């Protein structure tokens, strides 16, 4: 009985299941998708946290800005209120401030040459500015002429003009006292504020008496 052997020199491929071939790509795809899903979740969480951080920062900056603005506005309001108070105080001071220069100017314009003033005094009581002057006239006629000048157009700022205590001295000059009220508009600082200094130069009124006595 003969033994028969069948031999083949053709190498045979290992038997591989088609199921394993198909499972490998699916497993790799699943890993990639899972990774992407995790990355997406982590990114979403990060964006959410960063968004909350930005919102909180915005609220914090808004609060600080509001506080700074309120503080600035309060300081500005306080400064404006203080400025307004000072302005009102300055206005009140200006309203009460008086200027004597216009009185001397007007006296210089209406005083005749035969009249000399030797003293000048004033007082202000309840918006009533009173001037008291002592002087010397060449004669009684000079006093009458001077009274007419006070009552004339130029002397309209002087009211209640009164010459009194008329006395003749040893040189035949007539000594007198003069009293009158000054209108507030003439000596108001505000009314004279815009006038030039050259327009308010009081003429020399109190000259020496030796010229008249000669």
Describe the 3D structure.
The chain has 214 residues and is of the alpha+beta class. It folds into two domains: 20-96; 101-213, General secretion pathway protein M, EpsM (Gyrase A, domain 2, 2-Layer Sandwich). Helix content is 53%, strand content 19%. It contains six helices and four strands, in the order H-H-E-E-H-E-E-H-H-H. Strands 1-2-4-3 form a four-stranded antiparallel beta sheet. A hairpin with a 5-residue loop joins strand 3 and strand 4 (174-182). The chain is rod-shaped, with a radius of gyration of 55 Å. It starts with 17 loop residues before the first helix and ends with a helix. Mean pLDDT is 77; it is low at 208-214.
